Amino acid sequence: MMTQNNLHVLLFTLQKELFGISVMNVIRVTNIEKLIRIPKAPAFIAGAINFEGNVIPVVDLASKIELGTTTALPGTKVIILEVDHDGDSLEVGIMIDEVLDVAQVEAASLLPPPLDNMGFNTNALTGMHKIEDDFYMILSARKIFEKELASLVQ
C-alpha cells in the first residue's frame, strides 16, 4: 500500500539547479523531436509536440518559474505530465535539461521551501529534499499550472 508519507520523485536538472517532481504526475520522458509553433501562446509556452497522436503543449519550465529560459536543442528532454484539477486533467510537457534519477522521499523529511532570495518564483515548490550534499527543489505540478488549470474550469 502506498502511503501519503512517501513520494516517488523524478529528479532532474534545469538551468544547473536540481529539481524533482512527483512520478504520480509523470506520463513519460521524451526527447524534443520537433516543436510545433503555437501562435499567440503565452511566453512560457515553447511550442507543442505530437505525443501518441495528441498535440501536447510544451512549457519552458525555467521561464514559467522565472529561472531564465531554456533553448530547445536536440538533446533537450521533455517530461510529459498529467496534472489533475477537479476531475479534469491537463497533459503538458515541461522542458528540462537532464533526467537524473527517481528517488523515494519521505514527505515528513521535506524541508519547507525558502520564501525568498531563491532568484525564482518558489510558489511552485512543495519543499526541499536533501540527498547527500545536494538540495533538490521538489515541484508541485499542480502549483506550477495553477493559473492554467483555473482557466480550464471557467
TrEMBL record:
InterPro entries, per database record: CheW (IPR039315), CheW-like_dom_sf (IPR036061), CheW-lke_dom (IPR002545)
SUPFAM superfamilies recorded: CheW-like
Pfam families cross-referenced by the UniProt entry: CheW
Top-level taxon of the source organism: Bacteria
Occurrences of domain CheW-like (ranges): 6-150
Name of protein: CheW-like domain-containing protein
Native species: Fulvivirga kasyanovii
